[in-house]
Amino acid sequence: MQNNIVGTMRQFKIMDYGSSFYPFNQAGSSGTGPGGGSIGEKFLERIHDHLRVNSFRSRSSQPIQNLQVDNNMLAQGLSIYGLPQKDLIEPHIEPYLKSVNFIESLADVYGRVESCPESEKSRVYVEQCALLQGLHDPNLCKRSLKLARQHAFDVHSKVVLSAALKYERREEELLGISSMECSGKYLDCPKSTLIPGYSPEFVNDGCGCHRTLREEDEVECSVDEEECSISEEECDMSFWIGSEEVRCNRYYMSSLSRPFKAMLYGGFMESKREKINFTYNEISGKGMKAAVIYSRTKSVDSFDLQVVLELLSLANKFCCDEMKSSCDAFLADKVVDMETAMLLIEYGLEETSYLLVAACLQVILRELPSSLNSPSVLKLFCSPEARERLALVGHASFDLYNLLRHVAMDEDMKANATVMLLERLGECAAEGWQKQLAFHLLGCVMMERKEFKDAQKWFKIAVEAGHTYSSVGVARTKHKRGHTYTAYKLMNSLISNCTPSGWMYQERSLYCNGKEKMMDLNTATELDPTLSFPYKYRAVLLMEENKTAAGITEIEKLINFKVSPDCLELRAWFLISQEDYEGALRDVRAIVTLDSNYMMFHGKLDGNHLIQLLGQHVQQFNQADCWIELYDRWSAVDDIGSLAVVHHMLSNDPGKSLLLFRQSLLLVRLNCNMAAMRSLRMARNRAATDHERLVYEGWILYDTGHWDEALAKAEEAITMKRSFEAFFLKAYALSDPDSSLDSANATYVVQLLEDALRCPSDGLRKGQALSNLGAIYVDSGRLDLAADCYMTALDIKHSRAHVGLARVYHLKNQRKAAYDEMTKLIEKSKYNASAYEKRSEYCERDMAQSDLSMATKLDPLRTYPYRYRAAIFMDDHKEAEAIAELTKAIAFKTDLQLLHLRATFHDSMGDNTSTIRDCEAALCLHPNHKDTLELYHKAQKQAKEEQT
């Protein structure tokens, strides 16, 4: 290849510890700020002195009484729950669409999105969302749902997709916000959802709800009765309702519909009568008077709710389409809460009022998951008859039942209502992928209910519909029903006929023993190191062999890069057996932070209760001691330990929003984004002041991609109070993650960070701010100032600053010093895969390969080592090995950069088909990635030229 790919690879950005600022491209900028020296050594010295004085340097002098306990008591007390059992840790069957050729499936759905007509895009985006769910990245699903909603044509689809998007965003919502409250954005507006038609270009615009409300307040909504009434001279006929006469004009009444016109002007007897008996048409005199008024005004706005319901019924009987539409729109506008929705939806279903039912459904769906606990709501959706009633009104769809089953499965996978909703989903399924999903999910639910015969039936139907992964369900149910050898043969056949994947070997391992089982588990880990079952099985096996320490080491291989409650539980279990109660307490605190309702020991003991038990066997720290412990954990880059300390601090001070905010930051570091958003939302809800509330709302907006709104919150907070977090938030909000900082913005961000550092805060946050400030100095060429920032951060135990300092040394051509800095971080860090990866940049190829191999061993999800090794192969003209290196990682880590690099390699080899496939898969993950789009269009052009 003409260009050195290794050199190119070294330019790929590797995320620094905690740095979220992006480089600006002004090289050689001055080292002084706008004031000719306001950004410099004196400022850094002041910050250094301030932090040195205000940092915790020693544990509290307050004595803590040592607890005199019998350490065997807890182990004996917990012996009732037994030790971990291999038979009870078998992997769950994943309740998602799972393709055996995932990259090809991604490419296919992206290609169809690009080529299908506008009317089909929404449907394909929903399919894309279903496919992406298996990646467990909620942001990808939200984006697909947003695009599906953006391209939806009909009201029903808009209502359902808006509700689905709202459900996915539920962790981002703030306390006290009504489910029907409009944010001012067209896409989220409940009223806009009920407007039929296609308007994707307006989705990012304001909806005008607040302006409309103000205008309505200014206009008096009264109706002139004289204007609506009909003079006696105009009345030429009357309707009799019982003994009540309703005078009207024949012409106006005939204009309501063709049946009325036929009755009043056709060959019927009524056409020759001045008085018509209307007693038996189920309308009151008041309702008939309203119909007379409507015949002139074509408006129902002056009538009360009951009268409009009567008009709706009359409109249906006499095919008054215009009056029905008016009634439908009027009633839909009145649906604002659950009580009204549940009352009016019955009228809507009875009278087949499309818009009214849509409005009622919108309220019900936007109240999920709580609304699904109502028996009336379940009755509305669950039975076949209920689905048929909805279908008659145009409101039974796969999308509707897919949302309902998703919520039901989250709430209680085994419930009868869940099964019934899945059955309705299957009835609505029309396309192949819809049938695959519906029947596979039915199999999963029946499996959970231990109804293995029914589960096997549904899994088989899913396989017949084309969902190969459902073969796992067929095999598992055969095994449960005593046909283990048949299950083994089925999985053996799958491995032979498909490209082998880690999950295939993992599944086959369940149906064999001894060395063959361990070989399959080891192969599963080799093909997909993210699968948790092989680690858990090997760890429990080691424990059964009285090798508990080795078992802990085995499960920690997974915990080091993939934190989950079940793996932390297993380690806690092992630690309890070793009487390491402090370590066990750390893990249980982390578990409860991730899932407050987690049940330990195969679902037998509440996690919070176990914390109380373990707490009796360890020393208790006060809040000051906890802060010191938090510094130590933070310095050791021990995020799980830090999370446990914060949980302890919150138990001492549960209303402290600052601690909840710290908790959210740690959860982000551990890639537990939903739990992080939950903590951040709790911090906002428990904020003691308006200033705090604004800051936390700003961080919520920032984390959800609303940078302009986050900036506005930060500025509002600063006007109330100049605080570290407000300035820090503003600095982040100005650093657009999708672009580089220009010179002017960089200077302003520097000033904001300086302002933040002058405000009171703890060393943990100030260390982060100093690191970010140093990163901007590096990108602007002010290396000495950057070094001062990083050294000041290191003085307050912010170990992650070693990364930035190493970068400074490297840019100064002091590679040995850079290498040494990363070595220091490796020695300090508990979890140091990133440090090995970064150190590889500062050494020769052989040593770099060694460091990257260690990084992959510690964290196989880090993509840079695979890209580097693949680039080495390409530089050595070993194209097949380069492609294989990337393919190995892509098999378990569907990553934009991996796919883009493989596409680049295919392009250099002239393989346009493979280039297009990888580009399409990458664009499915990130549709606006500029480099991939350019490569994609180039490959398409070349492919067309070859065909001609």
Automatic annotation (TrEMBL):
Q: Which InterPro entries match?
A: BTB/POZ_dom, ETO1-like, SKP1/BTB/POZ_sf, TPR-like_helical_dom_sf, TPR_rpt
Gene3D superfamilies, A to Z: Potassium Channel Kv1.1, Chain A (3.30.710.10), Tetratricopeptide repeat domain (1.25.40.10)
Q: Where are the TPR repeats?
A: 767-800
List, in alphabetical order, the GO biological process terms annotated in this UniProt record. negative regulation of ethylene-activated signaling pathway
Q: Where is the BTB domain?
A: 235-304
UniProt keyword list: TPR repeat
The protein's name: Ethylene-overproduction protein 1
Pathway entry: Protein modification; protein ubiquitination
**Pfam families listed in its UniProt record:** BTB, TPR_8
